Amino acid sequence: INEVCDVNPFGVAATIAAYNEGEEWLNQLVDYLHGNYEAMAEFCRRELPEFPITRLEGTYLVWMDCSSLGMPSDALEHALLDDARLWLNAGTMYGAEGEGYMRWNIACPRSVMLDGLVSLISSEAANRLFFYPKSAIGITRCHTTLRNSNGRFFN
Description:
Blueprint (H helix, E strand, L loop, with lengths): L8 H13 L1 H25 L13 E5 L7 H12 L4 E2 L10 E5 L4 H13 L1 H6 L9 H9 L8
Antiparallel strand pairs: 1-3, 2-3
């Protein structure tokens, strides 16, 4: 540990405590993140079926396939940031194979993640890109859908 530059002594103590006493917390975190993934998957099945998400592979980063838009990932990233105030990572940031994909970080409170999904379909970008009629993407409808799903989305 002393060979690592600029180590904070509190960080060392926290790391030791996490390894020795953090198993219960880690299990709770993994369960919560899996719940976030399940909530996102359900939302996408219901509200965004044309944009499937990939299965998680040991991480909290979800890939959404937006290739049906026929729009470069970089352009979609900028449109969503400008219109929906939603900052996702363009798949091309990780190589040419990522074209058509957007990467979501779901390691956050579930309500924040769901607000991001609602922002995605409620934005001007959605009106332009997803070709939803304005009446179909009202934020009230989305929040009603989320709140009426037997508590699966908001805990």
